[in-house]
Amino acid sequence: MTKQEAAQAYLRRDPVLYANLLEALRRGSAELLEAGEGGVLLYERGCGAYMMSAASPAVAGRLLGMVPADCDLSWAMSWRILSRQRPGGASH
What we know:
- By secondary structure, this protein is of the alpha+beta class.
- It has a domain at 3-64.
- It has helices at 3-11, 19-27, 57-64; strands spanning 30-36, 39-44, 49-54.
- The protein has a three-stranded antiparallel beta sheet, sandwiched between helices.
- Strand 1 and strand 2 form a beta hairpin.
- The termini are far apart.
């Protein structure tokens, strides 16, 4: 799977949430820096913004490590609970 295919697969899991990243890729205005099962990092050339989605804090840290230290960073986070445990250990 190519990096582009990996990014599309990850982002299409929730196309509304990731509409801005998907649109940047569709337009060809973003450089795809990293993509995999755990997340996506883009650089939008037009406005100079880095855009990221990460499935875990560990992946977020790794992707943020790829962003230049001198970049102006505006951070927005959205965490979702994909599976929760019921009392007694049963998942729902």
